[in-house]
Amino acid sequence: MTDVSGRRISPALIICLCGCLAAQAVCAREHETATGTFGNDVFMAGSNVRVTDGSAGDAILAGAWISTSGPVRGDVVATGGQLDLGASVDGGLYAAGGRVRLDGKVGRNARVAGGHVDVGSDAEVQGGLTIGGGEVAVNGRIGKYLQVGAGRTRIDGHVGGDVDVASGELSVGPDAVIDGVLTYYGPQPATVARGALIHGGTHYVERKDWSPRGHHRKFGVGAWIWLAGWIIAGTVLLALWPGFAHSVSEAARRQPGIALLLGFAVLVCVPVALLLLTISIIGIPLALLLLCLYLLLLPLGYLAAAAAIGEWLLTRMHRGAAVLTRDRILMLIAVLIVLFVITRVPILGGALRFLVIIAGIGSLVIASAARHRAA
Predict the structure, then answer these.
(1) Per the confidence metrics, is the pTM higher than 0.90?
(2) What is the pLDDT of residue 28?
(3) Is 120:140 a contact under the CB 8 Å cutoff?
(4) Which of 153, 223, 249, 350 could form a disulfide with 167 if both were Cys (CB 3.0 to 4.6 A apart)?
């Protein structure tokens, strides 16, 4: 992101670094990279993650610095401080980080979010490319479409379809070729260099009040700060209660349907109960107490679901071996960032967020009940 003074801000970098530092503070002696396989899929988490041998299936990666060079036959999901993605990917790409550079070939669609996103001249995305970030540069070849929401955007590559950009600045370089229509939302018209070819023409929509914090809040500063809060809260929770992820994951695994039903019941019935309590003067103090617990339960449910997903992945990576606290924290950070990106997809994102919350709340209720019975 860029603020009004023009200084560079990389919110994703700050978030990832905070998460990694928190993990190191909890487990300072654990420096190895956690690596595991589940079927043909590869899972790697650590401070320095290198994928040189590739993967016959998907590759799930989380770390402060990630580098890929070996071919991946499935999808790639990567999150970290700095991402250098040079591998050939047959499936789709989902990446989020402070600095993301794409130089490889992607067989399907790519979704990228970061403080600084650079699509190199050797990069090729055969499907569509969606980018949310602070500074975005696209110099590669995009097969179907390009969508960008950023503080500053430069396009100097080949796009085989339409281009939609919402940005504070847009410049189109002399080597740019756009086979479709360029639609730009911003405070001033785009700067188009001589030699650029836009076959479908340019459509400009003036947005004087546009900013990454205003028009495109999906990846704005506020959203990144919100994500940082989730990561910090989750890190503290796992540090103080290492068994939290395991207990919630077990509850979700054993009774997934019951967890969803319980979560939905709590989400819907508690507000009704609060309304009924406020009718009587005696019930108002109890209603206020329940309201506080209800507001606390919603974020806890989201974190519980993210922790359960991370625990499920880790159990398949380690195959019965002991799971370290650091691994749980790094995997939770990865899951939270992936959910952050996916839940920004219109319609689908809202539905997924709702399912995550109710599943987490239901799992919390089941885990708490089991703990109470054991006690």
Answers:
(1) no
(2) 37
(3) yes
(4) 153
